[in-house]
Amino acid sequence: MRLPLEDKKFELYSIREEKTDGAFGAYPAERKIEQKIDFGFVLLDKPSGIRSKTAAATAKKILAPLGAKKIGYSGTLEA
Amino acid sequence: MPLAINSATKALAELLVGGKEYIALMHVHKDFELDDLNKTLKQFTGVISQLPPVRSNVKRQYRDREIYYLDVLEIEGNDVLFKVGVQSGTYIRKLISDIGEKLGTGAHMIELRRTKVSTLSEKSGLVTLQDLDDAVYFYQNEKDDRLLKKCIQNIEDALDFMPKVIVSDEAVDTVAHGSPVAVPGITGFNHFDKGDRIFISTLKGELIAIGNAVMSSDELLSAKGGIAVKNDTVIMKTGLYPAYHRQNQT
Lengths: 79, 250
What we know:
The structure holds 2 protein chains of 2 kinds. Chain A is an alpha+beta fold. Chain A is built from 2 helices and 3 strands. The longest helix of chain A has 12 residues, at about 50-65. Chain A is flat, with a radius of gyration of 18 Å. By secondary structure, chain B is α+β, with helices and mostly antiparallel strands. Among the domains of chain B are: about 20-115, Alpha-Beta Plaits (2-Layer Sandwich); about 160-235, Archaeosine Trna-guanine Transglycosylase, Chain: A, domain 4. In chain B, about 25% of the residues lie in helices and about 35% in strands. Classes of the chains: A alpha+beta, B alpha+beta. The interface between A and B is large, with 62 and 84 residues.
């Protein structure tokens, strides 16, 4: 079964054809780790029994040497 | 559980507006007929009215929430395992107790697992803390980034349900500084309505910022100038693209 968002399809209207300079930024699929860290997210398989907050803090510690200064999580279960 | 790193954390709020899917285990307090259960569950799909629980972060008044689907996966005695796709802000514990009341038996929730947020599902690459630790080890000690590249996904992929406005290289840095998106800087866009949340993108598909559309895409098509999107959440660091001085400014 699918949520309504999953079937959303977008058509692209092009106003003008324009080239992008490869010297700046990077295509998301070609990002190096240093670039990826600022645009990154991780889908964590949280161990049951530990709090989301604890899991996020552990992940932050693991990723800190790569330059992760901030980790945010979306953990509201709305139970 | 989606974890976002550094400035990508600012985009997390966008994920919350999308729907969610859960697998829940419901315990029914008395014996029931399968027919009655199916009939009752049917009444809990589509738009339902729900009173948020006493302990919640929202005002306690009935509000409409849409249940997109509700499928029973397994029944064992009085325990019913089901999968449910819901609009954001639906309380599952409350849903189950309402189902129990309607069924005439009473019921409560034993277990809950969230399986989708917006377009992110468990299938889109779940990693454990151990995976992540291993990946960082390989990257740092063996200069092998393959595992880590798999663990860390691009925030753009999590926001693929948002309409985009694409701007030229020249406009990127001003948007990264927080400036609104002006019509002349736009090279392409998806369909959107006035007020929609917009993914402001580079030509390479990088997320620069997120903001509200101040005109609809139809209006944009015929607009010669003016502001199209007011950006309120900048993701990209400044300086990634060159700064062009606005020479036309008087």
